Every structure is written in C-alpha cells, then in structure tokens.
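ARCHIVE CARD
CATEGORY: sequence design from structure
SOURCE FIELD: tokenized fold
FIELD CONTENT:
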C-alpha cells in the first residue's frame, strides 16, 4: 500500500544502535522506561564523559553493558551492573531516528520553544557559580551545572567514609555511600531522581545522593550524615 510517512506510528521509526566506551564518571541520569524493561537516558550532566562524548542523547535506551544484553533487564539490575563495571564502561545504546532533515528541524524547533518557556517561567537565570557551605568546614565556590559529587571531590571534601571510599559505585546512584544532607532553596538543586527515591526510601527530603544532584545555586551541605 502507499502509506504516508506521517501515519506510521512512533514505534516504527528507524532504530539505530550506537556503541560507546565511556570512562567513569559517566554523568548519565537514567530512568525506567515507561511500560518496558530496561533503562533510558533521562539527562546528561556536565563534567561526565557521556556529555563530552557527544555520542549519548536523552531518550537513548541502554541495550548492552560490557557486552551483556540488558534490553530486557530490570532497571535496578542495570544500575547495579553499571556500578560494578570497571573504570571504562562499554555501552550499546539504541535510539529512534526519523528522517534526518525532519528531526534536525524538529530539534531546532523544540530548542527555540523551550528557550522561550524558560524565560517566562524563570525570571532568574541560574547563577554561574554557587557557594557550598560545608557543615563544620569551609565554604567553597563552585561552578553551577555540575554534579555535587564532582565538585566536592574536586575540592577535597570528605564525601565518603573510609568504607564508602572502597565500596562506592563510581557515581552511578547505586550504592548510597555518597549521601549528604542539603539545606537549600528548591531551585538550587535538581529534583530527586528514581535512583535516589530507591536508595533513600524513608529518609528526609533533605537527604540526597551527591552523585545525582546538579548544583544550581547556593547550598548548605552536611557530609556523611548518620
């Protein structure tokens, strides 16, 4: 039959696979796929290898980790595998692509749209730097848009206990050893992720995993809370 392209359901876009080798920290926030097993990329974070590789995009589905097929593996298990993986992680990602010209135009359109929305909703742009006051320690000035785990480590802060130093998952939200207490305005940090909801069940909302928090403003941080 002569099907017009527009009548093809979204599921039938072409799927391409991308193979990437990324050093940790990956700087990828994953989320569960709606109505399917597996994990997809929810967002990329500055300072991580995924963003600087320009090979990983939001919406990519993780189909293989270090040569193991994870397309039908549960989200928790995938996060665990990433935590256990070595310093360099071999990933195969799948993404759906429409006709190139169309998707490029679509992307350009979305960008302008979201830029306008942002202006209306957030009169205050994200500051370029933020001050992180450490309980019992000094205040450090850090660039915004980076993971709290990275800026704390860059500034030689004792994020991990001795045990945590040896057992931490490399910043993929899997172990809970980088938990901190944060006192800040809501817009000073990114919202809790699925990984945090799992690891911090029953903990106060001030409790966060440093590897999942994007610094967007000033905050007061308590390290290694009991």
């Amino acid at each position: 039959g002569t099907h017009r392209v527009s009548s093809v359901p979204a599921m039938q876009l072409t799927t391409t696979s991308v193979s990437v080798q990324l050093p940790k920290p990956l700087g990828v926030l994953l989320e569960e796929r709606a109505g399917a097993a597996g994990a997809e990329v929810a967002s990329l974070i500055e300072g991580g290898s995924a963003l600087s590789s320009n090979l990983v995009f939001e919406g990519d589905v993780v189909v293989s980790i270090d040569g193991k097929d994870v397309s039908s593996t549960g989200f928790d298990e995938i996060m665990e595998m990433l935590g256990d993986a070595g310093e360099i992680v071999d990933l195969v990602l799948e993404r759906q692509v429409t006709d190139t010209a169309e998707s490029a135009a679509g992307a350009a359109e979305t960008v302008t749209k979201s830029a306008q929305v942002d202006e209306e909703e957030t009169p205050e742009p994200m500051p370029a730097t933020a001050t992180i006051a450490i309980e019992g320690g000094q205040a450090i000035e850090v660039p915004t848009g980076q993971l709290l785990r990275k800026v704390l480590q860059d500034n030689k802060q004792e994020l991990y206990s001795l045990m945590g130093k040896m057992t931490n998952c490399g910043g993929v939200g899997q172990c809970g050893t980088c938990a901190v207490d944060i006192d800040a305005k809501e817009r000073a940090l990114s919202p809790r992720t699925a990984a945090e909801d799992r690891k911090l069940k029953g903990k106060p909302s001030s409790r966060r995993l440093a590897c999942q928090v994007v610094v967007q403003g000033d905050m007061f941080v308590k390290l290694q809370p009991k």
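CARD ANNOTATION: The mean pLDDT is 84. The CA atoms of residues 98 and 104 lie 9 Å apart.
SHELF: design records, drawer C
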